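REVIEWER CHECKLIST
Item 1: Sequence provided? yes
Item 2: Single chain? yes
Item 3: Sequence as submitted:
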Amino acid sequence: MEFSNTYFDNASTSWPKPVEVGEAMSRFLREIGGTYGRAAYGRVFQTSGIVEECRNAMAEVLGVSESGNIAFTPNATTALNTIITGLELNQCEVLISPLEHNAVMRPLERLAQAGRIRWKVLPAGKDGRIIPEKIPEVLSSDCRLVIVNHQSNVNGVIQPLQEIRSYIGSIPLAVDVTQSLGGVTVEGDKWGVDYIAFTGHKGLLGPTGTGGFFVRNPEQLSPLIFGGTGSRSESFEMPSFMPDKYEAGTPNTVGLAGLLAALSHKPDKFWSADGFMMMLQRIAHIKGVRVLAAEDFQHQGGVFSIVHPSVPPSTMARRLYDRFRIEIRSGLHCAPMAHRYLKSFPAGSARFALSPWHTDGDLESLAEVLELVLS
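Item 4: Structure as written out by the authors:
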């Protein structure tokens, strides 16, 4: 068995990055180094141009026409907290998918414990994929927000966002594309999504410390962080216009330079859907192994997990690394709700997440290695 790449922890952070990412960040630090929107000289103009070019590029991958409604944050967690707390929800219900990450569940639970909201789970199949036609069974007049994790970071299930929109009417729809973006097409305008939270360091192959969100109607969302923006400095109040309303403090300009390079140099995917499906089928035939994945492969993203009745996920991960230098993540993946729904709680799972750099040969070798390790 041979591997071109033994790194399968891309759901945590992608690796390797395109070489242009590091080059762009190094060049920024060596040759540009200006701040964003805080003065009127050459370095600032260059830096601001990079940030705005990155904003425009993000609009393309998010499938939205209004790039000015994209705000950058350090990560998707900050973006989701801004959305959930900024809507100032009170005495209402929030509907969520059964596969949400703690970046959604913890701010929601904080509001629930304060008596401000009640959250309910949308009806779904065994794999956690929402069943749109059953949404009316749980939808009430008190619902003020629907939150959906576009692709699960545990089993890779992709949710039917356009169908979900058709059943929730005009209720605001917030989508977490942290795992899907870069591997799955996102069409924010077409799907009628009101809020999209994203990160740069996973499927987009950008650096850590980059992320943000799209907001369709900024007047409906209060900021989370308050501080200097370089604009309206005479006022103690945050500016009301985009993107300044949500971008207090000096942004991660060097990171955004790297993210722009990643967006401009996205590699072609080397592995095929057939190769991925054949690997999953082969792993599923290993005695005792349960594969956490979509029941229908057409709804499967590039992430899956496995559990074994006698080999804990942590033991599995250690064996893979010690014997084959295969790098994965084991445990709950910051998504205990998903594991409860998938009946893999509390031990969690051994998770594998592909990148464009993997090949069908890598997938075949991974299946062979798992047969050896778990037989």
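Item 5: Key structural point noted by reviewer: Residues 42-62 form the longest helix (21 residues).
Item 6: Recommendation: ____
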